[in-house]
DNA sequence: ATAACAAATGAACAGTTGTTCATATGTTAT
DNA sequence: ATAACATATGAACAACTGTTCATTTGTTAT
């Protein structure tokens, strides 16, 4: 009555399952990790991150660069900010965004490397 | 009549925009990159990849390990296969999956590192 | 205080995604 | 050939996501 049968198969490799189960990180960590990568999983956000590889840009610059509305960019920057992928500083009316840390660079790099195959 | 006004702002930092525009990879590459990261952006798929870090597992093993149906896992493996994140070999009735290459490891690692902050 | 501009936010809508259910394909043993 | 099991696939549906439009907040200059 607890949890239904999810797999029709008879248990095939219980040892491997047990070992995998032991080394698998906690659900919360894996959920957070998925949330992090979700941020990289959208064209607009990838473009924003790439644009910020070289330069610090304000919201309006990014909007023009990518041909999207200021609103769309702002919404995406909010997500990137929440995931600590970008940081920002205010200067007068403008807000300048830049990459938060080196991990963003290396994740993008590893991704690009993977594709060249 | 060509493309509408996307940004209300007056052009603020044309030099920065021009430079960013020059170094920005092609749309196709950035789309592919986003598609790649999209694969990492789901809890089930992240769990599958993590489980395969240590061991080669068959579809049924993974289903039991994660408490999901065989069908759900199979669908996800199809996506991971298409993105070349996992490889597989058939052995009798079972199909064993494993990680395709080292990039998967390092991308997961970089992601985990980023979160420990 | 008011006007002008930059950025942020909320609601809404179309498009996408992940799971389930039912079924098909593939493999092995009888 | 048939039965039994492992995997793959297709359709369908609920949940989620990204953009737009309208509006608000924040900053600077007059």
Report what the structure shows:
The structure is a homodimer of 117-residue chains. Chain A is mainly alpha-helical and 117 residues long. Helix content of chain A is 61%, strand content 12%. The first copy, chain A, is built from 6 helices and 3 strands, in the order αααβααββα. Chain A has helices spanning 14-23, 27-40, 43-54, 59-66, 70-82, 102-115; strands at residues 57-58, 86-91, 94-99. Chain A has a 3-stranded antiparallel beta sheet with strand order 1-3-2. In chain A, a hairpin with a 2-residue loop joins strand 2 (86-91) and strand 3 (94-99). In chain A, helix 4 (59-66) packs across helix 5 (70-82). At the A-B interface, helix 1, helix 2, helix 3, strand 1 and helix 4 of A face helix 1, helix 2, helix 3, strand 1 and helix 4 of B. The structure holds a DNA duplex (30 and 30 nucleotides).
Beta-strand portion of chain A reads 5-15%
- Total helices of chain A: the number is 6
Low-confidence sequence ranges of chain A: none
Order of strands side by side in the largest beta sheet of chain A?
Answer: 1-3-2
The end-to-end span of chain A amounts to: 49 Å
State the oligomer.
homodimer
Compute the CA-based radius of gyration of chain A: 20 Å
Shape descriptor of chain A = elongated
Q: Report the major sheet of chain A.
A: 3 strands, antiparallel
User: How many strand elements of chain A?
Assistant: 3
Structural class of chain A: mainly alpha
Helix content of chain A: 55-70%
Task: Name the chain pair with the biggest interface and residue counts per chain.
Answer: A-B, 67 and 67 residues
Q: H/E order of the elements of chain A?
A: HHHEHHEEH
Mean pLDDT of chain A: 92
């Amino acid at each position: 009555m607890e949890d239904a049968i999810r797999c029709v198969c008879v248990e095939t490799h219980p040892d491997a399952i047990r070992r995998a189960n032991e080394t698998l990180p906690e659900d919360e960590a894996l959920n957070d990790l998925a949330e992090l990568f979700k941020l990289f999983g959208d064209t607009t956000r990838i473009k924003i991150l790439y644009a910020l590889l070289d330069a610090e840009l304000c919201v309006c610059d990014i909007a023009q660069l990518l041909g999207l509305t200021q609103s769309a960019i702002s919404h995406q920057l909010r997500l990137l900010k929440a995931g600590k992928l970008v940081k920002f500083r205010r200067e007068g009316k403008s807000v300048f965004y830049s990459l938060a840390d080196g991990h963003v660079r290396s994740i993008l790099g590893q991704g690009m490397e993977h594709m060249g195959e």
